[in-house]
Amino acid sequence: IKVNGKRIELEGIENAALQVRGVNRSAAAVRAGNIILYCEGSEADEKTIRDTISEVLPPYMIPAAICILEHFPISSNGKICTSELPNVDVVMKQHSSSADDEISRLLIDTCKEILGCGNINTSDNFFALGGNSIKMIKLIAAVRKKYDVVLSIKDVFLNPYISDLHDMIEE
Residue 87 pLDDT > 90, yes or no? Predict the structure, then answer.
């Protein structure tokens, strides 16, 4: 499957997710141009899954959203019934974190502007949302201008989550 002009192996994403402790089953799908990863398991959390798969997958294969389900819908022949998995809009709403303070709101607005995304929250990974080296430089410049905080390229690579960037700015 191609997403944003890049060949995506959904099975590779699923296999990477299965390496995470607590993930029993996984299914990846492309919905509305976004890669969505569905994981079954009660012990798994989104950040751990995202961090683990980020170590083995290229940035363009990192899912835009991860939905953790207690049980997958199973068809009569024992396979995962993908048509009954939550759609992209539901997944995005489930993982939405409110911008609790001014820094969060301004950082989310900055990322929306740079990345051209509508659904960004504090638990999102900058690179999973489509961030690249050019957009990262724009983000660093915007943070410097708005907050008078100097971030390095290494800072953003090592702290790609919006909440991590928030914490760095707040310090």
Answer: no
